[in-house]
Write a structure and sequence with these properties.
The chain is built from 10 helices and 9 strands. By secondary structure, the protein is of the alpha/beta class.
Length: 306
Amino acid sequence: MSVLLTGATGFVGKAVLKNLTFYDVTCLGRTRPEHFHGNFIQSKLTGDTQINDFGKADIVIHCAARAHVMSETVGDPIELYREVNTRGTLNLAKHAAAQGVKRFIFISSIKVNGESTEKGEFISAHSPVNPTDPYGVSKSEAEIGLKKLSTETGMEIVVIRPPLVYGPGVKANFASMMKIAKKNLPLPLGAIHNKRSLVALDNLVDLIVTCVNHPNAGNQTFLVSDDRDVSTTELLEIMTRSAGSTPRLIPVRQIWLERMGKILGKQAVIERLCGNLQVDITHTRKTLNWEPPLSLEEGIKRCFDG
């Protein structure tokens, strides 16, 4: 079986490529992945790029995207996201369908369903879409277009919506938390009782590879997580232990953190630290007979070991 992979130099795509050893792989992107000696198609992904060679691929795994940026400085970022994440994705998929690709696996985002959940509530595979930022909107619009294309062409679409993905080489907020854990400074974060779903990179990759040839994966939307939700306090404690130290977190009531954030103009930071975002992966588990192979503790340990 032949697979065409996009985004093979990125955080997720690089890990996917390492796990496709039993497949004939073609990579498509702007630069050739390091140490990859297979078929490579140099191309950027936009709404009008002509892609006439898929290396006889049966399956496309589409990891390439304009990544989510916490603090956008562009005046109108939605069109930048749409050009890559929506129009670029749909253009790639149309070319794939025209060249006989049987299944198109799209790495979307839980942001399609929103930024948060109420206490005790979960996002499931059947929850309504509710994107609230340009990145989430661009991914949601791509999903809608892909499903329409599937109806028109018969090419199977598989959508995977991960929450925050962490693993060796992770950047952004998770990397900042790792630095905090390594320094092990006393922090007023010892009494946060929120719940958030995360997914280890290895767990996400395992699901992606499972979807390559699983007979039940076609035309399905899958949520993915480590199947263990944690509070910010629990997460920092696990991180600190993984860094080889004993946690030193001071239990300060959440309401005081929120007030402090308002005074310091850091409300968004406190909301991310204290908010809930839980996903229900029951549909994924039952449909694919799949379980995340890595525990959250082991996943975090690999971040520090890697």
